[in-house]
Design a protein that fits this description.
CATH superfamily of the largest domain: Glutaredoxin
Largest sheet: 4 strands, mixed
CATH topology of the largest domain: Glutaredoxin
CATH architecture of the largest domain: 3-Layer(aba) Sandwich
Structural class: alpha+beta
CATH class of the largest domain: Alpha Beta
């Protein structure tokens, strides 16, 4: 199904086209794993919104990707609580063990790493998301065990 067709199926759920913009961007990103210029134009066309509006929203929110990503997206929280409980060591582990730099992707395309300011889990710090799976109370051993489960 083309992106425009799927997006148009969501329009009836929203009072106006601007209200459908966030889910439309999510639909477009889900198709290719990121939002290419072509995907942004498809969303603009489907919602009949200016391209600048669509691009502005897509670049404002951290959940939208502006370039190709690995098969699995690691979002590691580095807010104050997570840093106090060892998030910095986890970033170092990802660099050393997986060759994964913040904002980068592993050579095999398996993982991409995004450093997040907050994922709303301060009470269970340090924490991360892998794709949409939440992982709290991380240690170096836990993070390695968790990542083994993602091919």
């Amino acid at each position: 199904m083309k992106i425009q067709e799927e997006i148009k199926g969501y329009l009836e759920r929203y009072p106006d086209r601007r209200g459908a913009l966030l889910p439309a961007l999510y639909i477009a990103q889900r198709k290719a794993g990121w939002l290419s210029q072509e995907a942004l134009e498809a969303v603009s066309e489907a919602l009949d919104l200016p391209k600048a509006t669509v691009r502005g929203v897509a670049t404002f929110y951290a959940m939208y990707r502006q370039r190709p990503m690995g098969r699995h997206l690691i979002q590691l929280c580095t807010n104050v609580a997570c840093m106090i409980f060892g998030a910095e060591r986890l970033v170092d582990l990802l660099k050393e063990r997986y060759g994964l730099e913040p904002g980068g992707t592993t050579d095999d395309g398996r993982f991409s790493l995004v450093i997040m300011e907050c994922i709303g889990a301060c009470d269970r710090a340090p924490a991360m998301l892998v794709d949409t799976d939440f992982h709290p109370g991380l240690t170096e051993e836990k993070i390695e065990s968790i990542l083994e489960g993602y091919e």
